[in-house]
Amino acid sequence: MISAYPGAAVRAAEKPLLDAGLGPALMQRAAYGLYAACAREVLARRGSLYGAHVTVLAGSGNNGGDALYAGARLAGRGAGITAVLTSEAPHPEALAAFRSRGGRTIQLSRAVAECARLCAESDLVIDGILGTGGKGGLRGPAAELARAFTGRISGRTSGIDRRPLVIACDLPSGVDADTGQADGEHFTADLTVTFGAVKTGLMAGPGAVAAGRIECIDIGLGSLPGPALYRLESADLAQLLPVPRKTDQKYSRGVLGIAAGSATYPGAAVLATGAALATGVGMVRYLGPESVCRLINASHPEAVCATGTVSLVHVQAWLAGPGAGADEDQRRRALEAMASGLPAVIDADAISHVEPGLGPQVILTPHAGELTALLGRLGETATREQIEADPLRYARRAAELTGATVLLKGWATITAAPTGETYSQAEATPWLAAAGSGDTLSGILGSLLATDRSNRDTASPAPGHYAELAAAATSIHGRAGTLTAQSGPVEPSMLPAAIRTVIGELKKGVVIDSV
Ligand SMILES: NC(=O)C1=CN([C@@H]2O[C@H](COP(=O)(O)OP(=O)(O)OC[C@H]3O[C@@H](n4cnc5c(N)ncnc54)[C@H](OP(=O)(O)O)[C@@H]3O)[C@@H](O)[C@H]2O)[C@@H](O)CC1
Ligand SMILES: Nc1ncnc2c1ncn2[C@@H]1O[C@H](COP(=O)(O)OP(=O)(O)O)[C@@H](O)[C@H]1O
Ligand SMILES: [K+]
């Protein structure tokens, strides 16, 4: 499990070490970690460091110091290095070390276009303009450089036309370390090498997109108090996924009730059912119109379909909403599922029936547009753009207002418990942005809720338990999408096959964090 912390928590952990005079030592550890990651990435790409063109972007603070020291080490291995100084006052000792290894420097303010060209023609750009001391987006010539560089490389790929590798020092410059907001100009990295602890802004909103892969360098800060944001990894998922016991029968494994689909939108029910079955539920009991029952049974003969009410069937968890449209019976079933006290996924159209006073076992799964509407009904104004810019804040706020667990979809999907525990999963691929993809996510989550033993074996699961299960479902969905995308565009109806593969690999202990 990865734990991420706000910049202020990392700075507080550094403070006693800085007071003890260890600042220079911490910077050397950070710079060495950055150098090693840069060397590895350049070697993997072009086979040799010798003769590689590297540009270091160095700001006025310690972030620029880290980048200059890393650049000095790369120069020592034969790389040709230029530092673009974005301020008049770069870190003096780091600059001296850089120059003593033969690194040359250019003052950005006098040559923005030349610096943008230099970056675009480099093998590697190290972004050391701003770190945790940055406030707001980039300003002045640094902002112009980011704009010009992005313009020059847009359309290039990492293949034949050689887009330069961009490695961010601690965080991409212009990204807020705590929220991931990136309102102004900022850099976008292939890899972010972060120091001491992962910053929350690298795992949320635009910051998660700008960060690329994340690598954390231990600089000896020790443990930090109260993690703000978690990310599940393969080993965590393997532990969370239940395996049938020898004494199990279909009911003890878990039954999921699905109230999804309508005469207008029957396909959503088929997708959700398929995903739930592929995740390993004991039984699906489907409730909905007869026409949808027939369609589901045509592709999933194992689903038990009926047209009745929620109170008439015995299940361990509910899933309501996908494709429900304006169907009045499905609306009633969604309300009964929320009031049942059982774990329930409330997705799509059912989200518009949500009222405050729910419990954490109810998991709402909006995208940003659906969350705008929900918050509006609860008396809070937030546009879709505001939610996409700061998803941590709005997912937490929605959980607080409803009492439910909230899963806010996106490139990095945020899950927030009403008690404050928050997760971010980013294994997905943009190929998953397709109609019907969310229906499969709800099916995976419904299955995990129905087969969850802690719900039956303990009186009240730990705070954050449902947020953890929702994060696990997101991760399985993202991995299944990424696996499917390896052979072409993703059709959501292809996902169940990949879900089975992902779960099988996780259970075998195969590490597929970087599929
Ligand atoms: N502390 C430690 O132990 C260790 C720290 N480490 C490293 O230090 C980094 C934090 O260093 P830092 O505090 O010097 O901040 P950093 O972000 O480099 O620069 C701030 C400067 O930028 C300026 N500025 C601000 N916003 C701006 C904007 N939008 N556009 C333009 N300029 C802007 C601001 O000027 P101001 O606006 O305040 O006048 C100020 O001068 C951290 O991320 C990590 O890399 C590692 O070495 C490990 C040990
Ligand atoms: N750009 C993206 N990158 C990765 N995943 C995405 C992206 N856009 C959407 N997704 C994922 O695709 C799914 C889309 O869900 P949703 O919009 O509810 O679809 P639908 O309701 O049509 O089934 C969500 O799991 C979301 O996180
Ligand atoms: K940076």
TrEMBL record:
Its EC number is 4.2.1.136, 5.1.99.6. Homotetramer. This is Bifunctional NAD(P)H-hydrate repair enzyme. Pfam families: Carb_kinase, YjeF_N. Signal peptide: none annotated. Residues 233-506 form the YjeF C-terminal domain. Keywords: ATP-binding, Isomerase, Lyase, Metal-binding, Multifunctional enzyme, NAD, NADP, Nucleotide-binding, Potassium. It comes from the Bacteria. It comes from Arthrobacter gengyunqii. Belongs to the NnrE/AIBP family. In the N-terminal section; belongs to the NnrE/AIBP family. Residues 10-227 form the YjeF N-terminal domain.
